[in-house]
């Protein structure tokens, strides 16, 4: 059986135009292009300007490229904190963001909530330099209501707010006045091969990094925030980057803009609604996240219990690959990505296949 649809949360299904863009890139020798060339500057400019349009990113935010979102955890802690950060943890990836601060010898604090539960407006955060928020916990399918970010911002005006949006974008419609740093990697919602992180930062972040650097504290080496932004202003990078990845990102973002972000968002909500409805009505399965307000629309997690392996095999026979549960939930849960690369028709087939599953 040849798998037709990859529902794993990342690397996930490739966006439908990615292969064609990759073929053209190789014909035009993009992978061997100098990152100091005018042609690369044009590619970088196209990628960043396209992202500004797609995500409505204000002009006071810079867009820089890294190797991954995991790298950005480290760069945020190095560049934006001298002593403290506070982390909202409700799963494996928000935990790893917190662990990164520990590994870099900061003194982070943490608010922890049970797996499958989400933070609401009652969450309290202490006085700190930076608050690290994982908007969409990919390991559990829990999403953070945007009202919580607004409340945290109002209660902590001096702290920088850094949001992990790795499995949220491009679906999520951020109010960038409420955050200082947003980041993602391209192998999830953008339907691209892994190996590229995108870090969106405002002027408060740059000022903070320069202030820490002025005290003599190291904020890293070639990928310090001042260096990244200085190069980005010239549509360049400090080192030889993933040129092919940036090219493909520019092309896919152009395709998404042509389609329209509002259409993409409406389709995401439709696909999420029909899958959650199927899980809610199924006699053997249920959504892992019980509270509808905290259910992710981009990574949907099903509690399958003893039926996990059988459901996996049932879907694979139909050409669909679900994502395993994460960590301790590997054998009892399945995760389903809901990204722009997943069509309505693919999701309707997925839902029909789940509804016909009898164990």
Account of the 3D structure:
The chain has 359 residues and is α/β, with parallel strands linked by helices. It folds into two domains: 103 residues, Aspartate Aminotransferase, domain 1 (Alpha-Beta Complex), CATH 3.90.1150.10; 241 residues, Aspartate Aminotransferase, domain 2. It is 40% helix and 16% strand. It is built from eleven helices and 15 strands. The strands form four sheets. Strands 2-10-9-8-5-3-4 form a seven-stranded mixed sheet. The chain has a four-stranded antiparallel sheet with strand order 11-12-15-14, with helices on one face. Strand 3, helix 4 and strand 4 form a beta-alpha-beta unit. Helix 2 runs parallel beside helix 8. The longest helix is centred in the C-terminal third of the chain and has 21 residues. The protein is globular, with a radius of gyration of 20 Å. The protein starts with a strand and ends with a helix. The mean pLDDT is 96.
Outline of the structure:
This protein is an alpha/beta fold and 359 residues long. The protein has two domains: 5-11 and 260-355, Aspartate Aminotransferase, domain 1 (Alpha-Beta Complex); 18-258, Type I PLP-dependent aspartate aminotransferase-like (Major domain) (Aspartate Aminotransferase, domain 2).
Lay out the secondary structure.
Elements: E1 5-6, H1 18-27, H2 38-55, E2 61-66, H3 69-80, E3 86-89, H4 92-103, E4 109-112, E5 130-134, E6 136-137, E7 142-143, H5 146-155, E8 160-164, E9 181-185, E10 197-202, H6 203-214, H7 225-232, H8 243-259, H9 261-281, E11 286-287, E12 299-303, H10 308-317, E13 320-321, E14 323-324, E15 333-337, H11 344-355
Parallel strand pairs: 1-13, 3-4, 3-5, 5-8, 8-9
Antiparallel strand pairs: 2-10, 6-7, 9-10, 11-12, 12-15, 14-15
Helix pairs in contact: 1-8, 2-8, 9-11
